[in-house]
Amino acid sequence: MSLSQETQDLVKRVETFVRTMIVPYEHDPRCGEHGPSDELVAEMRGHARSAGLMTPHIHSDGSHLTQVETAAVLRASGLSMLGPVALNTAAPDEGNMFLLGKVGSPEQQARFLTPLVAGDARSAFFMTEPASDGGAGSDPSMMQTTCRRDGNHWVVNGRKAFITGALGASVGIVMAKSTEADSADGACMFLVDLPDPAIHIERVLETIDSSMPGGHSVVLIDGLRVPADQMLGAPGEGFKYAQVRLAPARLSHCMRWHGAAVRANEIATDYACRRHAFGKPLVDHEGVGFMLAENLIDLKQSELMIDWCASVLDTGAPGTAESSMTKVSVSEALMRVADRCVQMMGGTGVSRDTIVEQVFREIRAFRIYDGPTEVHKWSLAKKVKRDWRDRQS
């Protein structure tokens, strides 16, 4: 799809910035098992501000690039695991900014959205709950966290799990099921300042991925009092707002991880062309050359799927089915790309001498983020049945 010259120039600037300024940080000791440290995040974001590239998908007036334009920018930001964090295009902040821009009141946007767009704050989205509690995961309707009115406040109680970036976040969006008669069984969303003494981080989980600042936490919410004017949107509409956030957020994940897979393929290609075995470069062995060819096919098909879904969202359509199809197709294709890169590079592929092994780990987790492949397929199968019934009537 054609992009304006202005957008093409922005994409080139982002790519150059990531490759020259951010890639050298990939072996920085401040990159830990739970993501880059706050010190490192601040340092990289300082470089992004100096380059005029902080939050590049959002204009200075608060308006967004189109989804098609955003796709090109976020793919470029993903060429390093640290790129989205440095440029403020990473999850969960990118999705939270989108949601606040769509649903937040002017006062809420001034207080909570402005520092996020400026890259001066990080955020967390508190929806998923521990499986051991029978709480919400792929099925948000199982939510156990509750909220009730108490005068001019709401009181929230519950536990959350896999809350990305909760450690170190300044802004939280907390999702809870209402016990009030006018919104019973509906979900509510609340904006909160973090840290808050009523929100206790029980532990930061040890997970397969390591690119997101703060890692993923298990959190206890014990008597959290939130002023009524900090409810995001209307009471009982939280599940609807979650979809407002999730459809483009699924696609944004695809954009960023596409960039990461492109980078891994570049590294594997360079390795295959330089490394010799049995009298010739690896690339000249069909077993390796064909894997590189298959990578090109999967990367191009993923790019086309991303742009197609982005164009649907740009029409104003909900894009729920389209984002599910894209999430399934792209996450599975990029997993194949990353796996082939590891395989082609042998021992080097499983070492941390390059970022290939990290890309493999991160994309494996991506197949679960914002709904596992199987849940999206189940949702699409239900749509197939609904559409069939509609045709029969």
From TrEMBL:
The keyword Flavoprotein appears for this protein: yes
Domain Acyl-CoA oxidase/dehydrogenase middle residue range list: 124-206
One Pfam family it belongs to: Acyl-CoA_dh_1
Signal peptide annotation: none
Key words of the record: FAD, Flavoprotein, Oxidoreductase
Coiled-coil regions listed: none
Taxonomic superkingdom: Bacteria
Needed cofactors: FAD
Residues of the Acyl-CoA dehydrogenase/oxidase N-terminal domain: 4-120
Keyword Oxidoreductase included in the entry's annotation: yes
Domain spans labelled Acyl-CoA dehydrogenase/oxidase C-terminal: 236-383
Summary of subunit composition and partner proteins: Homodimer.
Family that this chain belongs to: Belongs to the acyl-CoA dehydrogenase family.
Protein name from the UniProt record: Acyl-CoA dehydrogenase
Organism encoding this protein: Sphingomonas glacialis
Record lineage: Bacteria, Pseudomonadati, Pseudomonadota, Alphaproteobacteria, Sphingomonadales
